[in-house]
User: Which sequence fits this backbone?
């Protein structure tokens, strides 16, 4: 994928196809993400933070991540600095935005390893941070990597940097054109829409991804209600 080779119509079609299958899961996960903010801002253990991390792992098939690694990830998130501004629905752009996303994911990976995670879980870290900051952090996984055209020989850090660079440029180009291509499922961020599209065309349309029949049950167990 090159930034000038992707159209709003293509993204819209991929987003619509994704939402028709996984839309309710996205809505429920976003509700959990919103509930996790208070714990992160206060650096306090929160059921919502732990549930968010484990739900991302369970629903989106992050291979090799054990439950204890998910617990380590939740703890590592609390060691980060959080401000309300990071959760705002504003697309970050430019070199500073690229540096922020890459640094934030790398830093979470390092913190996870320091706490005993073992492997450097770039995909899991990027997905977790994406769901907390979908306007700032793109997702890294094999389908997205394939769609973007990053060689499989590249290391995770270099590969993710290239994905971030290309997605931010593509997102900036898309927001200057027709609206509506991000779909009607929250979070309606350009990077979330691009992730849906890239995942879908990169292999997600024929994958065996988990389809959760009652995604809202996780929300209700936290004592939450849809907003």
Assistant:
């Amino acid at each position: 994928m090159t930034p000038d080779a992707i159209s709003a119509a293509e993204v819209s079609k991929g987003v619509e196809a994704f939402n028709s299958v996984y839309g309710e899961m996205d809505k429920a996960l976003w509700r959990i993400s919103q509930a996790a903010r208070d714990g992160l801002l206060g650096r306090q253990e929160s059921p919502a933070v732990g549930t968010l991390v484990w739900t991302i792992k369970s629903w989106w098939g992050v291979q090799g991540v054990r439950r204890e690694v998910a617990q380590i990830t939740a703890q590592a998130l609390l060691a980060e600095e959080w401000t309300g501004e990071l959760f705002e629905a504003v697309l970050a752009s430019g070199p500073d935005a690229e540096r922020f996303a890459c640094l934030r994911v790398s830093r979470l990976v390092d913190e996870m390893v320091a706490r005993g995670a073992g492997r450097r879980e770039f995909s899991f870290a990027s997905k977790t941070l994406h769901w907390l900051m979908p306007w700032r952090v793109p997702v890294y996984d094999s389908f997205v990597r394939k769609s973007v055209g990053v060689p499989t020989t590249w290391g995770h850090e270099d590969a993710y940097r290239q994905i971030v660079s290309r997605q931010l440029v593509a997102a900036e180009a898309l927001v200057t054109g027709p609206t509506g291509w991000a779909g009607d499922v929250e979070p309606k961020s350009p990077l979330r829409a691009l992730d849906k599209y890239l995942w879908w065309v990169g292999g997600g349309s024929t994958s065996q991804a988990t389809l959760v029949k009652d995604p809202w049950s996780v929300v209700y167990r936290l004592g939450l209600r849809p907003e």
